[in-house]
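pasting for ref. prot 1 ->
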Amino acid sequence: MNILGIDTATRVCSVAVTRDGAVLGEVNIDAGTTHSQKLLLAMEQALRQAGLGKEEIDLVGVSMGPGSFTGLRIGLATAEAFAYARKQPLHGVDTLMALACNCREEGRLLSPIIDAQKGNYYQALYRWQAGELCCLAPTEIVNVEKLLERIQGRECLLLGECGKLKDLPGNIEVAEDEIRMPLARSICYLSQRDYNREQDQRIFGLEPYYIRRSEAEELWERLHP
């Protein structure tokens, strides 16, 4: 199965093409706030590396959040348009779970996090057990104190947007740059693992996992009590 994976949940624009788990093409760009300018080019480059035409993709996987509101909308809209134009199935993937897939070390506690702004983070806890990625604690919005409390002094690998975290306790290791930020190859892996032909029939109508309201919504509520 040829899978196109897209992840624009953070400042990184990541696109990958895989076939039965093997990475055929991959492009990772620190796009900042310019996903709309970089994503289509990254898709073309990844497909060219893979030596595949757009019509040869069997499944499109896309990161659904949590993450940047704008980035998620751009990634999902692009994935929907790509899938619709070629009548290809579309599968949404949890961003934090995909981050945890970047490290396949058996038995290690993994804590993927994404900046939720205002001193908060989206955090979940995972561990690989017998070749399966197990969720130990679901996604929550936490401050730094709560983030560390959830790890509870256990040896842990931190992945994602952890650059603002300083003076971490000795039990926490920050992942190496090669696997720390989102990789679309993990979107492809989870899409192939979880794709259900009967359930994944919708192309339009998927909702990103925003978890919290956007600043625009909060501002509207303050101005219109």
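and prot 2 ->
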Amino acid sequence: MAAVLCVISIGAQQRKADTQTAQWRYEIQPTIGQAANGSALVRVWSYSKNSTIATTQAGKNAVHGIIFKGYPTVGTIVGREPLLADPMAEEVFADYFKKFFAEGGAYQRYVSYANNGIPDQTMKVGKEYKIAVTVIVMVDQLRERLEADGIIQTTEQAVQGKMPSVMVVPSTVFCKNHKYMKQFNNNGVTESMADYDQALMDNNVNQAITAINARLTKRGFEVKNLRSALATLKTEAAEQALLTSKEGAAVAETPIDVLRRVAKADIWVEIDWSENVLKGGSQKNLTFTMSAIDAYTDFVVGGIPPTTSSNEYSASFNVPALIEPVIQGQFEPFCNTLIDYFKDLANKGRAIKMQFLVWDDFDGDLMTEYDGAELHEIIEDWVADNTVKGKYGAPDISPSGNRMTIEQARMPLVNKKGRDNDPSRWARELKNMLKNEYGIECNVSSKGLGEIQIVIGSK
């Protein structure tokens, strides 16, 4: 009889604890230590009049904290934003989370206990215990579950349009510091650029790029591989910095312009890190940074600021492995920034530069009239009709009428057939209009991804 009463008593305490837990009275903070990739190591302070029950509720509180609260940076330990930033999400999906966090619910698949769940610290606060337990939450797996259940939008659902493509590269600063640089001739001027071929011979660079590529792929981005892009560039002899039309019109491109055009990645994610020797010289830590750059405009659209790892390591430690705890807390907002940027591009269009030149043998110039309108007006009317919401910069026409530039022309991300757009494909629609309606031949060529040159009178 006593055993039965004991079981009933424990069951009643557990139900009472579940009711208390539903009020979500806990504190969550990061803690020093190494968790597996895609996981978070946290210390959870739970409150209860029963110290044993407070301990068992720590896992539930930890998962709740990762989903709804996140936690701040503590010293050198990087904080994390919640998976669900919407403060109304818990109320909107109340039925789902009631079942999810029920005793024996799905939450327990995404949590494990460090030190066998033995409390790190126990404090008496009034009539209650405040107990700290170190917990590991499998954040990436948890996010995948919430995506599959329709609680969190996938990247494709959030963008609702053309999926952004990204390519991870070592930053120019990193390449300079490690002497991975090469020279090229830019219109008679010798300049330096990052030598990605040489950088990829560095095993740490390869491993770091591979690790971040995997994270971006899992998050739903289309990832372009730097090594593959370089191989394509060589195969197509696209490394030439001067492209010439059939009749001699030329567009000067740097090797970086060419690589961007070949890779066709919307965003370049530049990574950089440095190793810091600590006192005594036998240990090091690592400072890491990551920047997202629009490959069309060179505009910085997001990033992870320089962050120093809280862990120390010996000279033989695998550097890319140390990047993981630095970025994992900041990776979610980094991805959200890219998604927001692409949603903005879908709404406003992508800004590109259009340059118009008149070929020497062309009979006329941009001031020549066709059916009562000057050629530059015909072109501008087309741009106004084919940019997103008619947005573009005021045309700049040379006094001679042989050159015109239009900046900030907002090209749609997809064409009228619903296919991915790029400046060359888009400008060919203008080329076809001029030929079909006015008998004017044009040549279209690109400079990198974000600039298009249209030569009037050249095929």
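The chain has 15 helices and 21 strands.
The two ends are 97 Å apart (CA to CA).
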